[in-house]
Amino acid sequence: MNQNSVFMEIAIQEARKALIFNEVPVGAVIVKDNKIIATAHNLKEFNNDPTCHAEILAIKKACKALNNWRLNDCSMYVTLEPCPMCAGAIIQSRIKNLYIGTFDDRSGACGSVLNIVQNDSLNHWVNVQWLYNKDCSLLLENFFKHKR
Amino acid sequence: MNQNSVFMEIAIQEARKALIFNEVPVGAVIVKDNKIIATAHNLKEFNNDPTCHAEILAIKKACKALNNWRLNDCSMYVTLEPCPMCAGAIIQSRIKNLYIGTFDDRSGACGSVLNIVQNDSLNHWVNVQWLYNKDCSLLLENFFKHKR
């Protein structure tokens, strides 16, 4: 298992934790110098706060860990393609690399519906790598199947 | 002075408070049933957190005040055109009306660089009204003039 797969596995574990809270299962991990500095999962319903997506919570934790709002040399691993809010937070925090587990054709903002993380008109460009992990999409499919 | 101008004046007062913290002067107010339920200003540097823009902080406060992450019948007054992150948070929270004080041609995501709040491919559409308040732009111009 290569390093990217290992970090994505940990993001998937985070997504599974979200299920305990009956939240949409999305997880995120932020890595610097090959060390995990933040992990988070979706907590929107639990916190009654629409900004509490996994990515935003992970960014807040990473900034606290580094005592810096700039995450220049950091990589984020996230199980689902970030929405416009989270893609915007990723460019605000200057995250360097973004590894995405599966795409979101309803609100993905890293290429699916629009592209905020790779947009020449904005002030930061993120390296994006799609890992297409089946567990990421299966977790979501099963969650929404049970919801209906 | 009409009601919209009154609420924008209060957003401008918030923006002025940001100056005390040497933050980019942006302020936001959220209104429901003609009553203010949240006010906030930029606190990114103070909190060392890139998500602490005025709009995000105001949304978090408003959700707490209503004990609900859905701000369906709420209006936001903000002194500067929201960035992609904040425009994304506005659609996540389902805010109905957005009143903007001045545009941001570098990272505005309500029409200037891109448009997230009025995009048929996304799941929420916001009514946007531009108020073009000179104080909103002057506050920013003076701030950046002194920074240099």
From TrEMBL, chains A, B:
The active site is at residue 55. Binds 1 zinc ion per subunit. PROSITE patterns: CYT_DCMP_DEAMINASES_1 (PS00903), CYT_DCMP_DEAMINASES_2 (PS51747). SUPFAM superfamilies: Cytidine deaminase-like (SSF53927). The keyword Hydrolase applies. Signal peptide: none annotated. Its EC number is 3.5.4.33. Its cofactor is Zn(2+). GO terms for biological process: tRNA wobble adenosine to inosine editing. It catalyses: adenosine(34) in tRNA + H2O + H(+) = inosine(34) in tRNA + NH4(+). One of its GO terms (molecular function) is zinc ion binding. InterPro entries: APOBEC/CMP_deaminase_Zn-bd, CMP_dCMP_dom, Cytidine_deaminase-like, MafB19-deam, tRNA_aden_deaminase. It comes from the Bacteria. Residues 2-112 form the CMP/dCMP-type deaminase domain. Zn(2+) binds at residues 53, 83, 86. Homodimer. Catalyzes the deamination of adenosine to inosine at the wobble position 34 of tRNA(Arg2). PANTHER family: CYTOSINE DEAMINASE FAMILY MEMBER (PTHR11079), TRNA(ADENINE(34)) DEAMINASE, CHLOROPLASTIC (PTHR11079:SF179). This is tRNA-specific adenosine deaminase.
